[in-house]
Known about the structure:
The complex is a heterodimer. Chain A is mainly β. Chain A has strands at residues 4-7, 10-13, 19-25, 33-38, 45-49, 53-54, 62-67, 70-75, 85-90, 102-106. Chain A has no helices and ten strands. Chain A starts with a strand and ends with a strand. Chain B has no helices and eleven strands. Chain B has strands at 3-6, 10-12, 18-25, 34-39, 45-52, 57-60, 69-73, 78-83, 92-100, 104-108, 112-116. Chain B starts with a strand and ends with a strand. The A-B interface holds A 1, 32, 34, 36, 38, 43-46, 49-50, 55, 85, 87, 89, 91, 94-101 and B 35, 37, 44-47, 49-50, 59-63, 95, 97, 101, 103-106, 108-111.
Amino acid sequence: DIQMTQxxxxxxxxxxxxxxxxxRASQSVSSWLAWYQQKPGExxxxxxxxxxxxQSGVPSRFSGSGSGTHxxxxxxxxxxxxxxxxxxxxxxxxPYTFGLGTKxxxx
Amino acid sequence: EVQLVQSGAExxxxxxxxxxxxxTSGYTFxxxxxxxxxxxxxxxxxxxxxxxxxxxxxxxxxxxQGQVTISADKSINTAYLHWSSLKASDSAMxxxxxxxASRYLPFWGRGTLVSVSS
Lengths: 107, 118
């Protein structure tokens, strides 16, 4: 299985802050990577697909970059509704593994 | 509008069998893979497996192979996740999700909570 390692596992940030989350794959996944946001009690929501493509309806403050084994999710200016847990998932090879998540909390 | 409606919460005993469902609408059921994702209490997302309803081709994560069975009924546009003998460690929220562009999951059900306890 391809292992996905996210860092940090949690972070505290203030509204307006720029936030960057990193995801590393144990082997190349090319650009077959997605980012999901999950709030408590809700299903995950697709934010970014193909490493850097913004899903329809997702605010432009979210962006993704990277390829191969190193990826980042950036929130340019954190908003109150962005406090949630974020997961990366590789979609290159079965099983389509998720990272362990990054919880973004209010400072 | 694409919709995935999951069956309700279940409370079961260890050793019992269970089949939960994911009823879909708003698209051609046989043309898109459906994935199942587990989330244990307070934990992250785990990809369990997937099925292509067009030919019932199912793939499993090695972590779940032999532990669950994924199936689909084309006549009622519904996917299933089945356990033949539940364990307490199967207690979790289970999500179904429909793929888009073959690989990504923009459409999700609300989840089915499974509780297994003696």
